[in-house]
Amino acid sequence: MRATLTSGERVTLENPAVRSDSIFGLTDAGVVGVASEDVGLLEVRRFALVETVVLSAVGAVVLGTAVELIAYCTHPQVEAC
Known about the structure:
Strands 2-1-6 form a three-stranded antiparallel β-sheet, with no helix packed on it. It has a three-stranded antiparallel β-sheet with strand order 3-4-5, with no helix packed on it. It folds into two domains: about 1-45, no CATH class; about 50-80. The protein has one helix spanning about 50-75, and strands at about 1-5, 10, 15-20, 20-25, 30-35, 40-45. By secondary structure, the protein is α+β, with helices and mostly antiparallel strands. It is built from one helix and six strands. About 0% of the residues are buried.
């Protein structure tokens, strides 16, 4: 989770938890606590299965088409491509 503080500073917290009026989480520096009143925005990453599968399929089709085109154009019996 990423928290943008009212000061403009951004803090990324792993395994966040709320205790009393603060949000605690792990950072590279260790455990950090942020008062909820100092948080202006919270952002949470989510995994989108459908979008990931669709983009992967489109990428595979584009890559496959490019490979076929290159193979066709470099074939010795093809005069011009």
